[in-house]
């Protein structure tokens, strides 16, 4: 599939010329500047992204926020002014490894203190790899309030990807709730537990469509089907041209599949790494993942086509998200003449596992993993009840951030500020039945962390299990900060530490920062602990993470220089010491 | 009126005995303890105070929060744990002068940095005067989210008030909106301006009644007329007994009148000062004021009576707030057989001004004011537009807090952190027409403050004027922190600095901390600048204050000792200095 695009010369000069002439095009990074400065004002504004009016966190008036365009090796400087009234904020640069700058990872509780209302905080970091990345709030559940956007890092001048295209496009897929994040959080941390239920709509590039005639919104004056905020996103393409479509995924809850009616997609990039291309009709994509796919506008040019996103892995009541794949010069608002494609059944796991297995590193770009680990950490994913509150745990430990963020606590040697006893490297493998309802009455909430010996090789085995509901196990997209990991393999059932490693792909495993853990299955990852800092590793479902579904890794903290004082100011570093 | 109660012996021993036997009674302070400790957890919870379910900020699960009961001279220690998810908080002890502890006044931006989520902050202060006070959030507009309560300070053992009663009761009157404070704030700071409109209901001691069948709430599933949260508050009284009713007022917007059907009220205390008793049928009360009234349960004991609060000074659409004045042993849920009293017309200013003028210091308790001021500050109250945003200003200056709270900036000599040029002591008195629409195109937003010479006498003249709407001037309740002021007089029209001071009451003016400024009128206050600190003086309408309606006074800051570092941690005192 990918070969059909090779006839198009990937000439940057020609591309720039074409782009500047074409009105619908998004800009590409200038090749001269090496420091890219952004001034962002973060505040609440009313928006109606799915026709339903609610408060959204905007950046410079926009939600999703502006796309960061850079070139490999550039330094990104974001001066973020918090103009929320009473809420703090922090922004994570998802997929950027923050080598040498772990304090700018933007993870409140792990790498920095929150940014107070009125404060201006400067993030400064290098984008050291080309590819498609994301940014989003990493404080409370603010990501779900709309604070997110795309990062696109181009190759250095003169270097080329192993695939070609004429135009570059980015979209972010999301789900959308009408409740505020505070309302959701109160439910999740209540006795009895109140679940957020299914999202009201799915957004494609910040636009969706809620049915204003549905109860209970009818008559409350907040839903306006003709609001310009919720006109479907239209991606305009020139007939016959090849496109690179960069897709980011940030839903709070749902796993999705994306389909562009009548068009195949050739997957070429995953989380910033070149993929041995393979063709799909439906791309399954999990919260926190990014992909690039190549698409050729090679269908009947007299009409438009549907782009459709759909919840998978849950029996969701949420209607599909729709956008328009607009063949120029058809009007971008002109609906396709067809019914949007239905796609595979939402509970059909096989094609999703097949896609996970199909993603391999592009030949010639594979960096083979070290052959053996120095340490293996097996993480049993369970739902538990702790003091009557529903939580998620790993090996019966539910993550609760300490009062002083870890990077600061360790960098400033304030070791009293969190539990120094490490959490367990495994669970009771022999006796635990992953197919039964969890009965982990001994689960605890803790802020303890895994300390990894610097530069060692660590395998992380994610082991899925039954939730607290009978015959139920759910997909978890796991995201690691500060690292790309090798994806050694996926399996079904209970991981066998003796036999399963023999099936690992040690030849061309893809490297990623986010990976699904399928129901009742396992996922095996390998990292080299060579990035000094403290890094969160967590389920990217906002609600699961809020309920404790994460762990924290430290490595090489002693190699870090002086921490910038800008990240401090809370916990043990609140207020200034007197002379 | 007050004499009828004098037959009841105000014996503390007898009272304690009676109280301990009577099931409906609230407790009175123990006389032994001198330090009163409270541990408060502040968080969001769902409540339906007027039958409509929304997020409310609770203290230890309660909204309004627990009543602080103390005795004059006690030290109050409140360990406040902020369990909000992403919002900071600060609590003001309204009416407590904070002598020697100005940093614990709880006014974010003036006296302390905000308390971060997860932080525990300890307020510690002395209640140096007996009387009825309040506490409430003083950060953003969180007060309107329900974070408030009462403080009741008893006399020392053996001392008696100049009035007597058998039982002591407290209620707080409030108004209630269904929007969140963030939603309201976004509207107020938008172009075009979006006003909050009239409150959805009035609460008496945290309970009100919204009409669940009214649009648009009908059908949204959030309104439940039979929720126990919104059963009317019932104040149970024993027939024939005399009661002291302490009334606090904290509405975001409305001035109110309170009426207890068929019962006269004898006003005996205002803002902690003994009043020369006078009898009213309707008590007018403005946001931030407290009163004690004596009531005798001397009506037909076979039925209950309405307690009714009503918006005055606005053409409000908000229905009256209702509670039940329950004659024991009638059932407290039994509605009175009558239609709730209507009270005077809401736009009838005369009785309100008459009440203001009627409040004099109790003879024998009057502390006469100094005869002459050292300085006179006249503050013209106007509505303005600044950079297209609607604001309120004093002498054309709209208050905007600096990034480092004033007490900290001055205490730590960080003078660069706010504008050192003082705001003007007056306005263009000769040429300004207070009856015309404000045309203050030169209004500015500023963080400059009034610096008062220590121990000098300062007169503050509040001058009302027309708003930006023709033929419109609105009541503003002005509240001063750190002080009680003498209320020298009220007048209509433009204050004349030569003739009007001759009409001042210098014999028995009441001292208060909150006072109304009536439409197109003036109010004259006198203070002695003898409390070292920095003190906010502002309109107590939450929305007006948010829109800049306040000034700040500094006095004797050089006399303060070392500031506790717990109040720091923001602005110029963010994070700790390295050794």
Which pair has the most extensive contact? A-B, 49 and 49 residues
Number of helices of chain A: 5
Specify the CATH architecture of the largest domain in chain A.
Sandwich
Q: How would you classify the quaternary structure?
A: homodimer
Uncertain runs of chain A are: 1-31
Write down the overall mean pLDDT of chain A. 91
- CATH third-level topology of the largest domain in chain A: Immunoglobulin-like
CATH class label of the largest domain in chain A: Mainly Beta
Major β-sheet profile of chain A: 6 strands, mixed
Q: Please, how many domains of chain A?
A: 2
InterPro entries (chains A, B): Cu-oxidase-like_N (IPR011707), Cu-oxidase_2nd (IPR001117), Cu-oxidase_C (IPR011706), Cu-oxidase_fam (IPR045087), Cu_oxidase_CS (IPR033138), Cu_oxidase_Cu_BS (IPR002355), Cupredoxin (IPR008972), CuRO_3_AAO (IPR034267)
GO molecular function, one term (chains A, B): copper ion binding
Keywords (chains A, B): Copper, Disulfide bond, Glycoprotein, Metal-binding, Oxidoreductase, Repeat, Secreted, Signal
Catalytic activity (chains A, B): 4 L-ascorbate + O2 = 4 monodehydro-L-ascorbate radical + 2 H2O
How would you describe this protein?
2 copies of one chain form a homodimer. Chain A is mainly beta and 579 residues long. The first copy, chain A, folds into 2 domains: 2-24 and 158-358, Cupredoxins -  blue copper proteins (Immunoglobulin-like), CATH 2.60.40.420; 375-567, Cupredoxins -  blue copper proteins (Immunoglobulin-like, Sandwich). Chain A has 5 helices and 32 strands. Chain A has helices at residues 12-21, 181-188, 350-358, 406-411, 542-546; strands at residues 35-47, 54-59, 68-71, 75-82, 91-94, 120-126, 131-137, 148-154, 167-176, 201-204, 234-237, 242-249, 255-260, 265-270, 273-280, 282-285, 290-296, 305-312, 321-327, 375-386, 389-394, 397-399, 444-446, 450-452, 457-463, 476-480, 485-492, 511-512, 514-517, 521-528, 533-539, 550-555. In chain A, the strands form 7 sheets. Chain A has a 6-stranded mixed sheet, with no helix packed on it. Residues 1-31 of chain A have low confidence and may be disordered. Chains A and B meet through strand 1 and helix 2 of A and strand 1 and helix 2 of B.
């Amino acid at each position: 599939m990918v070969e059909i695009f090779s006839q198009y010369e990937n000439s940057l000069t020609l591309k720039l010329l074409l782009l500047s002439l074409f009105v619908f095009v998004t800009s590409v990074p200038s090749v001269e500047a090496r420091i890219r400065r952004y001034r962002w004002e973060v505040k609440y504004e009313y928006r109606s992204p799915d026709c339903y009016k609610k408060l959204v966190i905007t950046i410079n008036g926009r939600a999703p926020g502006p796309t960061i365009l850079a070139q490999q090796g550039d330094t990104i400087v974001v001066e973020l002014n918090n103009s929320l009234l009473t809420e703090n904020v922090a922004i994570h640069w998802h997929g950027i490894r923050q080598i040498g700058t772990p304090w700018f990872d933007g993870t409140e509780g792990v790498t920095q203190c929150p940014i107070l209302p009125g404060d201006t905080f400067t993030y400064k970091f290098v984008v050291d790899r080309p590819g498609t990345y994301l940014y989003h709030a990493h404080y409370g559940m603010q990501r779900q309030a709309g604070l997110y956007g795309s990062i696109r890092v181009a190759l250095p001048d003169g270097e080329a990807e192993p695939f070609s295209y004429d135009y570059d496009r980015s979209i972010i897929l999301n789900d959308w709730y009408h409740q505020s994040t505070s309302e959701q959080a109160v439910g999740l941390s209540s006795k009895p537990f109140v679940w957020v239920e299914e999202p009201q709509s799915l957004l494609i590039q910040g636009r969706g469509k809620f049915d204003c005639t549905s109860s209970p919104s009818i008559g409350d004056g907040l839903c306006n089907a003709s609001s310009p905020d919720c006109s479907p996103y239209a991606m305009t393409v020139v007939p016959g041209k090849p496109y690179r479509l960069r897709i980011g995924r940030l839903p709070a809850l749902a796993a999705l599949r994306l389909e562009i009616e009548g068009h195949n997609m050739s997957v070429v990039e995953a989380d910033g790494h070149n993929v041995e291309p393979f063709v799909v009709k439906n791309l399954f994509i999990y919260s926190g993942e990014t992909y690039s796919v190549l698409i050729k506008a090679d269908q009947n040019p007299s009409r438009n086509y549907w782009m459709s996103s759909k919840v998978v892995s849950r029996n969701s009541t949420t209607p599909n998200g729709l956008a328009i794949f607009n063949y120029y010069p058809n009007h971008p608002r002109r609906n396709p003449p067809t019914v949007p494609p239905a796609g595979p059944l939402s509970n059909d796991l096989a094609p999703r596992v097949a896609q996970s297995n199909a993603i391999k590193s592009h030949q010639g770009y594979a960096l083979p993993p070290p052959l053996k680990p120095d340490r293996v950490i097996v993480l049993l994913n369970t739902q538990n009840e702790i003091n009557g509150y529903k939580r998620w745990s790993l090996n019966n430990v539910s993550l609760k951030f300490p009062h002083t963020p870890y990077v600061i606590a360790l960098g400033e040697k304030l070791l009293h500020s969190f539990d120094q006893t490490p959490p367990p490297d495994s669970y009771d493998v022999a006796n635990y039945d992953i197919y039964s309802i969890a009965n982990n009455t001994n689960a605890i909430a803790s802020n303890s962390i895994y300390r990894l010996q610097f530069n060692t090789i660590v395998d992380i085995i994610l082991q899925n299990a039954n939730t607290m509901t009978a015959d139920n196990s759910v997909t978890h997209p796991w995201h690691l900060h500060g690292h790309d990991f090798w994806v050694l393999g996926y399996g079904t059932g209970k991981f066998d530490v003796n036999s399963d490693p023999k099936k690992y792909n040690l030849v061309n495993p893809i490297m990623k920062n986010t990976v699904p853990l399928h129901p009742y299955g396992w996922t095996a990852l390998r990292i080299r602990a060579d990035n000094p800092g403290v890094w969160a590793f967590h389920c990217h479902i906002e609600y699961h993470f809020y309920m404790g579904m994460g762990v924290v890794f430290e490595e090489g903290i002693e190699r870090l220089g002086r921490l910038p004082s800008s990240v401090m100011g809370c916990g043990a570093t609140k207020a200034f010491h007197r002379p």
